[in-house]
Write a structure and sequence with these properties.
single chain; about 300 residues; alpha+beta; Uridine Diphospho-n-acetylenolpyruvylglucosamine Reductase, domain 2; 3 domains; five-stranded antiparallel beta sheet; about 25% helix
């Protein structure tokens, strides 16, 4: 596989790039190419030229909510980490336009600096705006779809399309923008006092720190919660908290997190996921579909409910 010359000339390009270090879990093999747009125009260029050349690609932001196969992926990866601008949206009062690569942590911080309230509930979530829009990322208090008013997409031919949206367009980890190339999103906030905003940020982060392994290498919550229930509780009741396969471990702090306890391989994570699912099914009859994405080839002999 070779890249179009214009991408080599205009973008940051990395050949044979290891994907593990680009994810929060820290596992996975290589991609043949990682291209890194720094501006909106470069992302549009990358999408248009890759599509025209018939080269499939994947979008990567902060690398959370993701497990990459030890064999890596055959597709080009577009990494948006350099596209992190956040600024006032001129047509809507108290609204911020956020580029796809801006982290949720940065969004919360910028909103605080601008005395804007409404995204404090996203603190502690290790993702980017682009990935959050695609999966409606959020916590108990808030999902990003609750505050989005429009999303800008890049079509395969490089055309830019602005799509208005409301909270009703989103659901629990569901989004009308899954699989799309997100250029940016607009969040509608409200004015607030900095002390009150900071207090909510502190309370939210404190609650998460008390129950979640925020400092550990993980992909975030591994399994979707059943309606009205908790996957973490089901895993704990099945006796799996602390269970380890190779370098992958069910977090002793929160059972819905699988952490890289040291030199884990993606296959360790895969096998541990299967063991947890089997144990929960035997103990309670519940299936645990995955919340995270899986990239690349995995062992088909050990299917995982919900995996693509």
């Amino acid at each position: 596989m070779d890249l179009p010359d214009v991408l080599r000339d205009e973008l940051l390009v990395h050949e044979g790039a290891a994907l593990g270090p680009l994810t929060t879990l820290g596992v996975g093999g290589e991609a043949p190419w990682v291209v890194e747009p720094r501006r909106r125009e470069e992302l549009i260029l990358a999408v248009r030229e890759l599509h025209a050349a018939g080269l499939p690609f994947r979008m990567l932001g902060h690398g959370s909510n993701l497990v990459v196969s030890d064999a890596g992926v055959p597709e080009v990866v577009i990494h948006t980490r350099s596209m992190k601008n956040i600024y006032h949206h001129g047509e809507q009062e108290h609204a911020l336009r956020c580029e796809a690569g801006a982290t949720l942590a940065r969004l919360v911080s910028v909103a605080y600096d601008m005395r804007l309230s409404g995204v404090e509930g996203l603190i502690g979530i290790p993702g980017t705006v682009g990935g959050a829009v695609a999966g409606n990322a959020g916590g108990r208090e808030l999902a990003i779809g609750d505050v989005l008013t429009e999303v800008t997409l890049v079509e395969p031919d490089g055309a830019v399309r602005v799509v208005p949206c409301t909270a009703e367009d989103f659901g629990y980890r569901t989004s009308p923008f899954r699989g799309a190339v997100v250029l940016d999103g607009v969040v509608q906030l409200r004015p607030g006092e900095r002390d009150a905003i900071f207090a909510r940020m502190k309370d939210t982060l404190g609650a998460k720190s008390a129950t979640q392994p925020l400092s550990a290498a993980s992909a975030g919550c591994m399994f979707r919660n059943p309606p009205g229930g908790s996957s973490g509780r089901l895993i704990d009741e099945a006796g799996c908290k602390g269970l380890q396969v190779g370098g992958a471990q069910v977090s002793p702090r929160h059972a819905n997190f699988i952490v890289n306890a040291g030199a884990a391989a993606a296959d360790d994570v895969r096998r541990l996921v299967v063991e947890v699912q089997r144990a929960v099914r035997a103990a309670s009859g519940h299936d645990l579909p995955l919340e995270v994405e899986w990239w690349g080839p995995f062992d088909d002999r050990t299917p995982v409910v919900g995996a693509p």
